Structure formats: C-alpha cells, structure tokens
Request: fold
Amino acid sequence: MKLSSRLQAIADFVPQNTIVGDIGTDHGYIPVYLMENGVTKKVIATDLSKNSLEKINLFVRERKLENYIDIRLGNGLEVLKPFEIDTVVIAGMGGLLIRDILDKDKEKRDSITNFILQPNIATKELRKYLYENNFEIIDEKLVKEDDKFYEVIYAKKGKSHIEHSIYYEIGEKLILNDDSLLKEFLEEKVAIIEKILQELKDKNTERSKERYKELSNKIRDLKVVLKKIESNRDY
Reply:
C-alpha cells in the first residue's frame, strides 16, 4: 500500500524488527504498512474512537493481518503494559497533547526505546519537553502535504544539550541535515511573524509591546538560521 508523504516520513523512522505502538492510529494505515513491508514484528494500534477502531478492524481483516496487529480502544499509553512495545508512534495531534500523553504515564514512557512524534502544532513546546525530560532528538524531517508543513521527530531517552533557544522553534537536526524543505519552511515562518508585527506596530498596550519585542527577537533568530543555510547552499 502507498502512504501519504506525511505518513511515509513517520514510517521511515520506525527501526527494523521492533514492536510498535501506534497511539491514535486513526485509519490504521501505518500499522498495515509496517507489517506488509516487513518493517516490524507486531503492532499495537490504539484509538479513542470506537467507530475508528471498527473501521480499522475491518481494514486489518481485509489485509489478513489480524494475527499481527493488535487493536485496542483507549487513551494514550494507558492500554499498554510496561515493556510491551519498544517503539511508539504518536502522530497527527497537537504537540501539547503528545507531551501530556508521554508525561501522564512515566513508567510506560520510560520502558520505550524509540519515539516517533509528529505534532500538528506546538512543536516548539514538544521539543522543549523532550530536552527537559532526558530525551535526545536523533533525527527530524520536514514534510509538505496539501500546502501544510509537518515536522516529524525521532527521539530516544538520553541526555542532550541545546545551545540556543531557537532550536526549540526549528529543530537543530533539520539544520544539520540541510533538510530540502527548510528554507521554504523558514521563509513561511518569517512571513507569518512579519504580518503579526505589522498588526502589533501601532498598538500601545504593555502586552502588545512585550509581544512585539518577543516576535522581533524570534524573527531575528530565524533570519540568522535562514542566512546560515543559504550561505551553506551557496558554498
């Protein structure tokens, strides 16, 4: 089966021969893809929606994978046992929700080796959580689908040091890897912030002034990163 570019980027980070938990599996495409392509030995697919799980059950049976994909109804990591999986996929939800899922059950979280996370929003807050809770970001990838950018993070437990707060906003691995979409991604971020700055320019409340200063500093840092990758590519 063929995955969308977003789901393919997520699946590509799954290490070979692991046991995977796909939290909030939605249509069940990733579990089926992983099994049919011999990437993983077993997948536990979970979702909060009974309707979704009924559709997934049907899809899995059609692909004759019911002995390899365990489908469970439940929230976050609560339907898993410690050490039951070694790789977790949490994708297609907000970064704050992903953070809360990881933080709610630390015993299960700490029994997992590989974390493949794809937040739709609040990636900055999720990275900050990872850095502050003894995770190491091993790799990242940008994907553009339907004119929207997605950031896919592959992390493991481990110590890592962040040299500049801008790396919460823009993953350091994206810069080190010179991700092919990074320049466009940065330019879009800069354009969005410039528009907000224009709206804030003539406002005189204390909060507006603070926000203007905060965003001005952010845009300065983003432009430094943009200049850096442009100069590297020119070279």
Observations:
- Strands lie at 18-23, 40-47, 69-73, 87-93, 114-119, 135-145, 148-157.
- The mean pLDDT is 95.
